[in-house]
Amino acid sequence: MDPKKQISDQSDPSSERPIIPVNKVQNSNIEYSITVKTGDFRNSGTNGPVYINIFGRDNKQTQDLLLSGHDKSFSQGCTRKFRINAIDIGKPQRIIIRHEDNLTGWYIDYIEISVHNFLVRFVANRWLSRLKNDQKLEAELFGSEQPAVMYNVEIQTGDEQIEPLDSPVYMQVYGTTTATPKLFFDTKNASFTKDSISKFTIASNNVGEIQRIVIGHEGLGKVNDWYLKNIKVQMLSQQQEYVINKWLSPTLGDQRLFVELSQEKPRSPSPPAPSIYLITIRTADVPQTETTDNVEMIVRGSDGQIAKILLKDYAKLNDKQLFQQGNLDEFEIEYEDIGNIESITIGFSDSKQKVAWLLEDVDIKYQETVYRFQAQCWLSSRLGPNFSWMTIKPDINDDGNIFTFIKHFY
User: Fold this and answer.
1) Which residues are 371's β-sheet partners?
2) Gyration radius from the chain CA atoms
3) Is 275-410 the same fold as 146-272?
4) In the record, which residues are listed under signal peptide (predicted)?
5) What is the pTM of this model?
């Protein structure tokens, strides 16, 4: 395939993607019954418009669905129901919900989607506001057919802390059945001060058995240096405790604002170093009118997988503009051994259909082996639903085995 073709010419049927619409049956529409509950807080409604994008397995997804464009359509404390026809994506797994009212914040309690014989609830319990939480007007939510549960969280800030942290703090929990969205901790009083313990209770999805959590802050305060000592998470009969003892800071320690914790890690301030995956992504050297740095990737191995990650959070050079024409961008991920790498899924969400990215190839170095994934393909929602994502397997030798390099290429 000639990588210098324009977007309108991309039609290579050999590109392996999570889903490609190929016939009328696959594209047939069905009815979705959608319920949206707005929180009962002062000024928690939105004037809209409100959009939703629904995702199933294998990156099947609907297009942007306009729920309502009318003023005051989602008022404080209200519950609104909609019936919308859209492409059949099977059982809803996750959604992206957004509104475009920059002047007011919107607090969402939950969204429920009924389709086929499924009733899936997406618990939010968060603001979509330019002034609160992560200051975003959209959120990714994960579904569950089980009732919501309470998470009791206890966070200890270390004695190394000088000034109180005033950046929004969040936690995300991943389990055997689903995940929570980002859960922001409402700090009405001063929290996260020197040698303090902060306690929170928040409702969200029942994720099944807790496998890992991510805790961090958004770096949006006047004080963005936080020394996190430990965290305890209790959900139903499960209780997890993690000892961290590190800075979550843009300037101190490893200069990251979050930490990922799994129950397999020893509860010790000095655990053994995890495995290192070095990822290099090459963008084709052709003009690309509008790109995005919000590229995400899943890495699947014979013994497990690295769940979807936002690559820019793991960039080796924090001040570099990513995924630009001719770029060779490098990322470093610490994760447990997932065995031989079998495939990756890479792409981005682009509901406004503005972004076009010509991906050349991806290399993943683990220990002394480098896996190469050839793409040479445009990723863009303008090509059709789900065409901003692709799933790729590593190169294969003539004998049918995965082609790997022993010596790293950079």
Assistant:
1) 364, 404
2) 22
3) yes
4) none
5) 0.55
